[in-house]
Design a protein that fits this description.
Shape: globular
Strand content: 5-15%
Structural class: alpha/beta
Number of domains: 4
CATH superfamily of the largest domain: P-loop containing nucleotide triphosphate hydrolases
CATH topology of the largest domain: Rossmann fold
Number of helices: 26
CATH architecture of the largest domain: 3-Layer(aba) Sandwich
Helix content: 40-55%
CATH class of the largest domain: Alpha Beta
Largest sheet: 7 strands, parallel
Strand order of the largest sheet: 3-4-2-5-6-1-7
Distance between the termini: 63 Å
Low-confidence stretches: 1-7, 699-705
Length: 705
């Protein structure tokens, strides 16, 4: 890349970016494949009539006009490229190749959006509508609605110390929003009100600095739906054209408007999942790439940022650098357990500015739990039966117990053991199970029941980690199978959440390997081992202290230097490298005696391999959970045209469960195919109304809810 400094006015780089956009707007291409093939050269070699094509183009745009357009492009790109070169001189933030690649993707995004928009308008015989950024008055109106709402909320319990502190934090965020930001963070304890405090900040930023949009990014759809409801309530229930909630579980009222808005993110406020957000930055599908340009000159709130998958950390860091430094976007990182993204060895994030300096001094005031380490109580780990007995014993002093495990199998076996033990008791507790073996409609129904249940009714809920972030319910006691500190702190956030008692207990236990097998769950296993290392070096500090969290991340990230760069499709590859220098492709090119282009990234190879949530080998099946599912499945089994099928599939999404190929083999005859490709349906008797997908059919018809 040393050649870039010798390129007068960046003409060659501009030309390569333009040709990449032309080659990729109907399907993403590698610039250089890992094997060393220069895709442009291959395409050019197949094209024997370049001169004829040029003359044909000149019939519509004269050659002088083409040259003028190109010169203007060079003038537009040059300051951006210079900014990239200046920023990437500090190698700890990643290579300039990566940032040149992000710039190329940004321009490709603009091209795809323009191309698809014009094509859609041509089909509808309408004129394209340019997105007009909201006016200052528009944002001022939303700010007034939020301020009025928060005033009423704070007034409800105005004399409590907690309310006063939440208000203090919220006001500090509003004032911070009046200062131009790049990457900022809000690190406050669970329950300190970061959902509305970060929105308050974002609204001030867009108004003060004329940003185009606000994005709210959440790690889980249940969390996203909950906070979308909160945002709508606070902002006067705006339409989807103002506040767009975009994720796989939503069923839109206005299908056409919703589809169009989710394709281009042309709304003032977009609330979407971390999956959709990261796909826009790295996935190879053109629909994902199309959305990327909407992230420029915006305010992006990334909530529960500690949930960014470990393998995505380096990519995430550099993408946030690109958006904030090159694209003028303000990035807001929210967490009670902020990972030190700015301190990793390479490909680090620029140091975030604290929105509320010293916010963690609020920790003592918001402390509602004590975390108790019991991992040494059973050195070999608890069996399902022992864990069940322990959970039941806690009912002597606690009304509501939440037991969180690391695997679906462990959750189910502990649930069945508790059910077996308590089934004959006169005052047996209500028993609930939550896991990804249940469809989202089922899980939400259980969560709703738990929230609405009288707090005096004894109850035990056995769950996987899906309840850790964004599920707004409260238990008097929580038991957590040993995991990462971020998991433990989030689990503690489900305990005594509303300060029903002076202090709630959170017990950390160890499960036996045969009941909670983590051999194939490397990330969870590594987090667990880092937690054990942290325990051995903690020296008396409390488990939810800043010292403990920093100690944990130090142990955890020290063993993840390569993995945080996202391991690639072949041994030794990483997606960071494929999207930067592309070492294998560049070396193979050199060995062949060919000249390396400036843009040598393997965009398609990396994008095809990229997954936010690893789902390779996972298959979606539709389950017959309730009466509505029965009706929808019956409609699916009838003969539908393409338009009706497209309308039906979003309605079936809440009844979908992802299973592994091994689980699919276990279910065998319990699943049947529909007439629509790979759409699979689980027979009704194999969906358990307590625990979800089951390879053993129920002995009686399931309850229709």
């Amino acid at each position: 890349m040393s050649q870039i400094s010798h390129i007068k006015n960046f003409e060659l780089l501009t030309a390569e970016i333009i040709r990449h956009c032309i080659m990729s707007h109907h399907g993403l291409n590698d610039c250089v494949s890992p094997s060393g093939e220069v895709k442009y050269a291959t395409r050019k070699a197949r094209q024997n009539d370049i001169d004829r094509i040029y003359h044909e183009v000149c019939k519509y745009i004269p050659g002088e006009s083409l040259r003028l357009l190109f010169d203007n492009s060079v003038r537009e790109l040059t300051p951006l490229c210079q900014k990239i070169i200046a920023f990437s001189k500090d190698k700890q933030y990643g290579s300039r190749d990566f940032y040149f690649g992000m710039l190329a993707r940004l321009l490709l995004s603009l091209q795809i959006d323009a191309d698809w928009t014009v094509s859609a308008c041509f089909e509808k015989n309408t004129e394209p509508e340019l997105f007009e950024p909201p006016t200052d008055q528009f944002w001022a109106t939303l700010i007034n609605k939020l301020e009025t709402y928060l005033d009423k909320e704070f007034e409800k319990d105005k004399d409590t110390e907690i309310t006063k502190l939440r208000q203090e934090i919220s006001l500090a965020c509003r004032e911070a929003g009046k200062i131009r930001g790049k990457i900022v963070r809000l690190v406050v304890p669970t329950g300190a009100g970061k959902t509305f405090s970060s929105l308050r900040y974002a609204l001030q930023q867009v108004k003060e600095f004329s940003k185009k949009r606000i994005f709210y990014i959440a790690p889980f759809n249940s969390f996203l739906s909950q906070n979308a409801d909160e945002y709508r309530k606070a902002l006067g229930n705006p339409s989807i054209k103002i506040l767009l909630e975009h994720h796989s579980n939503i069923i839109p009222d206005d299908t056409e408007d919703y589809k169009e808005l989710t394709q281009n993110w042309n709304a003032p406020i977009i609330m979407t999942s971390a999956v959709q957000f990261l796909n826009a930055l790295f996935e190879s599908k053109l629909g994902a790439i199309r959305r990327m340009h909407a992230l420029a000159d915006a305010v992006i709130i990334v909530d529960e940022v500690q949930a960014i998958p470990t393998r995505c950390i380096a990519l995430f860091n550099m993408a946030m650098n690109f958006l904030s430094v090159i694209c003028g976007t303000t990035v807001v990182l929210c967490s009670a357990t902020q990972p030190p993204f700015e301190s990793i060895k390479e490909n680090r994030m620029t140091k975030p500015i604290d929105m509320v300096p010293g916010a963690m001094h609020y920790q003592a005031a918001f402390k509602r739990t004590r975390i108790i380490d019991l991992t040494a109580l059973h050195p070999g780990g608890m069996s399902a039966g022992t864990a069940a007995q322990f959970a039941i014993s806690l009912m002597e002093s606690s009304t509501r117990v939440l037991f969180i495990t690391n695997t679906k199998r462990c959750a189910k076996e502990v649930f069945n053991e508790i059910k077996k033990i308590t089934s004959g008791l006169i005052n047996s507790p209500r028993l609930y199970h939550l896991s990804a073996n249940m469809c989202s409609k089922h899980r939400l129904q259980i969560i709703k029941e738990i929230k609405e249940m009288d707090k005096n009714i004894p109850m035990i809920c056995i769950s996987t980690q899906l309840v850790e972030a964004g599920v707004n319910f409260s238990f008097s006691t929580v038991v957590r199978s040993a995991a990462g500190m971020q998991n433990i702190i989030q689990s503690a956030g489900r305990c005594n959440r509303n300060a029903e008692a002076e202090c709630g207990d959170v017990y950390i236990i160890k499960m036996a390997d045969d009941i909670e097998d983590l051999s194939k769950l490397k990330e969870i296993r590594d987090m667990q081992e880092a937690f054990y290392q942290m325990l051995s070096s903690l020296r008396g500090a409390e488990l939810d202290s800043t010292e403990a969290i920093e100690n944990y991340y130090k142990h955890y990230l020290s063993r993840k230097e390569q993995e945080i760069c996202y391991l690639g499709p072949k041994p030794g590859d990483t997606l960071v490298d494929l999207l930067s220098y592309n070492t294998n492709g560049s070396n193979n090119l050199k060995r062949a005696g060919a000249k390396r282009p400036i843009l040598a990234q393997a965009f398609k190879t990396a994008g095809d391999h990229f997954e936010v949530i690893e789902e390779r080998g996972m298959i979606d099946i539709i389950v017959e959970y309730d009466g509505q599912a029965t009706e929808l499945i019956a409609e699916l089994n009838s003969k539908l045209d393409k338009q009706k099928l497209e309308k039906l599939l979003p309605q079936l999404q809440p009844y979908t469960v992802s299973i592994s190929t091994s689980k699919l083999n276990e279910l065998d005859d319990a699943i049947y195919k529909t007439g629509y490709g790979d759409i699979l349906i689980l027979y009704k008797q194999n969906y358990n109304q307590e625990t979800g997908v089951d390879d053993l059919p129920s002995s009686m018809d399931p309850l229709i809810i």
